[in-house]
Design goal:
The chain contains 13 helices and 3 strands. It is mostly helical.
Amino acid sequence: MSMSSWVSPPTRNELIEDLVSGVDRYNPSNVSILEDYLYHQIRSEEYDCLANLAILKLYQFNPDLYNPDVVVNILIKALTACPLPDFNLCISLLDERPVNANLDEPDPLPALLPILRGLHSLLYRCRFPKFWEEYRSEELEALRVNYTVECVGFENAVREVAVRAVKAAFTEISTTRLGSYLDLTGADLETYIKKLGWTIDDVSTVVSIPPNPDNQIVATVVQESISLPQLTKVISHAALKA
């Protein structure tokens, strides 16, 4: 993702652009518009970090507006932006958050926050097989049933995180290893690989990854040009210090 698309995603509409770019992002009466936009992102596989940060900033300034489900959904969307700092930016706006006693149900965030931090850490460290093991575990069933199942394309978005890491580090990788990174096997894995435009060797079952600036080793020669007058000054200065 380029910096320009991160600051202003092409899918952001004019109303949200005006809210995020101007002083109206601090107007608490606009929080419902931004929350609706978040749920639009969840349904449509879009992502707008700055708009979501604006919601968290409004919650920080106006604790009575706090909606724990919105916060959890923002963190789930930020997970899939790894290794960008989006998740930590969101977390930074939750520190020292006062308890809202007006909630109708118990706040799920204190229980889910350590889980989401753990998942983010695994993604950030590229421990993809461990991520899928934790994510599929019985302990995280509530997260899957109540939240990520509603986030359209969440698992594929996580796979895209793994794909970006693989593209940057490998020119070839076995299908077994790649499958463990993507949590895919058999025909599903083959279909996904073909969709990426990568090729599989039928004999060795090795996946070839096209060259890109990150996975190619290019020798760099650095030449420094120092003129004689400059060298004379260096030697003279060193002689004076001696």
